[in-house]
Amino acid sequence: MNFRKLRNLGRLDQVLRIGIGCALIYAGLIDTDFIQDPLSSYLVGAFGAVNIVAALARYCPLYALVGINTARID
């Protein structure tokens, strides 16, 4: 199985997801004064973690479902 065909995130998309994911984890889990509601805080942190995992895997299931591919075709 060729794993390169499974990639649908380009380099810029990957960098943006890592940056936004880190910011969301910081806002949701580290700086607890920023979001007062604990459930919302954990959800924001979890969404940030999902973005980082998607960026590292270079695959987004939502992009695959919609048919978006920002990865460069070799």
How do you describe this structure in short?
The chain has 74 residues and is mainly alpha-helical.
Structure overview:
By secondary structure, this protein is mainly α. It is built from 3 helices and no strands.
User: Helix-strand pattern, N to C?
Assistant: HHH
N-end to C-end Cα span: 17 Å
Hey, roughly how much beta strand do the residues contain? under 5%
Low-confidence runs of at least 5 consecutive residues: none
Described by the principal axes of the CA atoms, the overall outline is elongated
SS content category: mainly alpha
**Kindly state the mean pLDDT as a whole number?**
91
Helix content: 55-70%
**How many individual β-strands?**
0
Radius of gyration: 14 Å
Q: How many helices in DSSP terms?
A: 3
The main sheet comes to: none
Outline the secondary-structure elements.
Blueprint: H1 11-30, H2 38-57, H3 61-66
Search tags:
74 residues; mainly alpha; 3 helices; 62% helix; 0% strand
